[in-house]
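Technical note accompanying the year-one report. For the benefit of new consortium partners, we illustrate the data format agreed upon in the data management plan: each record pairs a sequence with a structure-token string. No post-processing was applied to the example shown here.
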Amino acid sequence: QVQLVESGGGLVQAGGSLRLSCAASESIFSIDAMGWYRQAPGKQRELVAALTSGGSTRYAESVKGRFTISRDNAKNTVYLQMNSLKPEDTAVYYCNSGYYTGSYIADYWGQGTQVTVSS
């Protein structure tokens, strides 16, 4: 069972940037897909971005053009680069690993990291 640990969250002003990192406890080379979800207070958890081992990506409409997901297999780490942040991006962000069968299915989760964007 892979363990995932997120880092890089924090407080940033609107328009700023943050890069989240997700370190896996084992090699991610063979993991079919990895992604990031977020959950804002009072809202359902939503998929932000997913990345397959083949390099295909999927983004929520609300973050397209602003967020970029990437992975470094040598470091067993997945990243989420977040630019032009908005107050509505405020949420707890969760890294996960899973697989892709037409849609991304997450089966292992990290504990989450808080991102707060001030206006």
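Partners are asked to follow this layout when depositing records. Residues 65 and 83 are 9 Å apart (CA to CA).
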